[in-house]
Design brief:
The complex is a heterodimer of chains A (325) and B (320). With 325 residues, chain A is an alpha+beta fold. Chain A is built from eight helices and 15 strands. Chain A has one domain. Chain A has an eight-stranded antiparallel β-sheet with strand order 3-9-10-11-12-13-14-15. A five-stranded antiparallel β-sheet of chain A has the order 1-2-4-5-6. Chain A has a two-stranded antiparallel ribbon with strand order 7-8. Chain B is an alpha/beta fold and 320 residues long. Chain B has a single domain, classed as Purple Acid Phosphatase, chain A, domain 2. In chain B, 34% of the residues lie in helices and 17% in strands. Chain B is built from eleven helices and 14 strands. A six-stranded mixed β-sheet of chain B has the order 1-5-6-10-12-11. A five-stranded mixed β-sheet of chain B has the order 4-3-2-13-14, covered by helices on one side. The radius of gyration of chain B is 20 Å and the shape is globular. The chains are: A alpha+beta (325), B alpha/beta (320). At the A-B interface, helix 3, helix 4, strand 10 and helix 6 of A face helix 3, helix 5, helix 6, strand 8 and strand 14 of B. Chain A: This is TIP41-domain-containing protein. Chain A: One of its GO terms (biological process) is TOR signaling. Chain A: InterPro entries: Phosphatase_reg/MetRdx, TIP41-like. Chain A: One of its GO terms (cellular component) is cytosol. Chain A: Belongs to the TIP41 family.
Amino acid sequence: MTSVKINHISSLNEPYPSPSALEAATTTHVQGAFVIATRKLPILKSGPIDAMSVRLGIPIPEMIFGDNLVSITHRPTGWSIEFNAEDALERVDKTGEKMLQVAYAGEWSSSREKTSAGISEVVKPFDWSYTTDYCGTERPGSTGGAEGKETKLHGDENTPDIPIELLKRRDPILFADEVVLYESELDDNGCSIVSVKLRVMEHRMLLLCRMFMRLDNVLVRVRDTRVYVDFDKEEVIREYTEREDKFENVKTKLFMQGLKLDQVTIALRDANQVAPLLPLIKQGVESVILGPGVATKTTTTTTTTRFPGQTQLTPQTQFVRPPPR
Amino acid sequence: MPGLPPSVDLDECISRLYKKELLAESVIEAICAKTKELLMRESNVVHVRAPVTVVGDIHGQFYDLIEIFRIGGYCPDTNYLFLGDYVDRGMFSVETISLLVCLKLRYPNRVHLIRGNHESRGVTQSYGFYTECSRKYGNANVWHYFTDMFDFLTLSVVINDQIFCVHGGLSPSIHSIDQIKVIDRFREIPHEGPMADLVWSDPDPDRDEFSLSPRGAGYTFGAQVVKKFLAVNNMNHILRAHQLCQEGYQVLYDDRLSTVWSAPNYCYRCGNMASVLEVSDTGERFFNVFAAAPENDAVKDQQMNQDKSAEGGALPDYFL
């Protein structure tokens, strides 16, 4: 009977794999003055889920990778940007103001009135599509010394764009990873997923934190945060975009590309195929120079006063470009 | 009742399916037709006797289904009750449902299949089963055979007159199980009404009564609802699936309700455990917890290989 390998866990104290081994689950890569770290672990257990739910005041998505992490740290100044699930969920609307309804909600509530009157209360209304405008958790750095200045991302009319052309070059990738923060199937009404991927080349890196939300027969949303690091200039640029369109419009566009029904269904599950079809509705960009140039570049530091106390980017504080026509 | 065509040997089908081989389209057609006839005669509430091993969502994770048989025993040595959600999301929905249907046909009194919310035309078109059928068979015929058969799956099972088993949960329209028996179930799962609630609803341990989901459709049910239902029907436990739990199971409401989840490392990336619930002949419950089958590593490699170039080297993702 020993020939059959039974992958059997008899004790709940035998986790798969051990979430306590955070360190062991973390991969780091050093490039120039920056340390890039990623951590991937299983979804949270029920205890930590309940605790997070109490802290956030909303139910937690069923696939919650609460121990996962992506971070970029500038060692000389201590500046860092980190992506984690709880901070992303912190920025989900908890008032019910931005609440969507599933496609058949009208049909559902009208028929329900006849059968089960008396149940009218929606408990804990919140944006159950888990739409977030999260663009990372920033920790400002310090240039050090007596007159050490705080360094953090900020945006104005001089803020550079991410140099897309340089990123199109096929420079060798030294480190790459993809980390999911949370995912919900919206009770099989679509999907909502926030994931972070990154690729590090010799002179630069790109990180993309993407929220993809598809509410079947209602709406498709993509919210992208791109973090670009120039290792030579020790400069960081962060760009945030919001794209969305009605589900029907997206479907029509996919059909117009010549896709068949099967292919349209598959495409609607793939943010990469859908994102380019969605109209841009919001865009903003910020940057910070962390390298030795930072002390002499007074213009950079003074502008930070325009955005006081802002450690987390909100769309309002960004330099917002008009959407391209 | 006419038998299967003489060309279809169920035992041979089962042994091929254990090896993860696909059955021919015509065989699936015959088997689904036969299963429909069998299921048609089942009540909306099927009564079974323990011992029985209860299995939650599988979602096309074929290797993990085989793992369940390795851990819990093969059919017909162990009696099985499956709580639904056999298809979608995993990579082997066709193999999974083919095997379960053949086992049901072969051992109709030792294998019971309840309908989950994924055993529906609507949901399987969005979540993978339709696509998988089309890819593996070159057309959607097999998907039609299976989804037509899904319309006949029963909605609930009662073990030893004590444990009420359903895929999702309770409904505000249902107080007594006699009200389940009169549902016209031979149809696509509707968006609303008691049939929808049984396959869709979730418990909410923070509440006492039924509440509306913020999504604008669907209910959650609370502690008092569970107590009342058990008292009215003279039972002591509700057993359901439908919700992912990292530990493989969850017990709520002072041991009045259990969720059993049987898809370990769900979607090949959640890292969660899974369980099956073994109900002994005296009605005692034991969660047998297990992790993903080792064969899944090959799936992971396969997924990674899809990202690789023809030369075999990794094709880097130059995303922008």
